[in-house]
């Protein structure tokens, strides 16, 4: 950026290059942070973006009358305002203060959730009004223990009679379990924010029955608790380390930004360069649509808006999205360490050179890791089996 300011010559593409560099500086992929400590430094990131944005603005103003591509510069400028700040906003949402602000409505509502129903049924999740999706206007009602019919809950998902979520359309409850994992992730985030767990704010019998007779019900496959928990942890990982949660909350703004960038890319490629190339923005949106976050958005809208339950086109799209297989978050494999096999283990010279060349953490002597082993169904069944609640 500084080289363009100090260049002894003028180039009408300098403002365009500066804006693109700022977009890249704001992270073009989905990663928002690499450690939990990075999320607490969101103000530092914001200050860095502020200085970089001022530098780009000065570059644009300097070349405003010299460039013939004012349309492109204008489109990219608006897109940059949103795109370059995504990483900062995602880190802010994942910081301790951001988690408190995001999960406080959930924590407030969970204080009154047990008062809204009697005789809960953990098998059909009747009486479990754990919220999935809501609007800002409903947060004031949560404090008073009021639940609007517009709010999508676990109970409403299991009660939905649409062809996507009934027994014929979702016989193994995988789609419904995705929403359940998202709810449990929100409750876990409220715990990270310092709010008490639900079992401390409502009768423990209700929470215990939800786990014992719902997740770990006898007769069900042992895959269900593992599937629900691994999706819950995948959501949690995305909240702390990626921008998926930000896109989930600002999906309309994100689509507008993508349209602006696509239009400007087409203008740059066709009008200026004379050809066309694909952009990563399309791929990012497609990956988000088929992700678990996209499934939650589609399914919550499907439950909360009854007219969508009569739309064959919408049901076909959602069914296609839900049928796309996703890689397992942890591969359903466990790494092992055997003391007997690793005793007196001495890494070879080439092994040491590899770690030195790649700057990876060296495992050291006597720390030879065995090959990962896939968790068998028998192990899953044994872990899922309860003996007097333990």
Automatic annotation (TrEMBL):
Biological classification of the source: Eukaryota, Viridiplantae, Streptophyta, Embryophyta, Tracheophyta
Keywords per UniProt: Membrane, Transmembrane, Transmembrane helix
Domain of life, source organism: Eukaryota
Organism field: Cinchona calisaya
Pfam families linked to this entry: DUF4220
Record-annotated DUF4220 domain positions: 2-341
Transmembrane segments annotated in the record for this chain: 14-34, 251-273, 285-304
Protein's UniProt keywords contain Cell membrane: no
Protein name (Swiss-Prot/TrEMBL): DUF4220 domain-containing protein
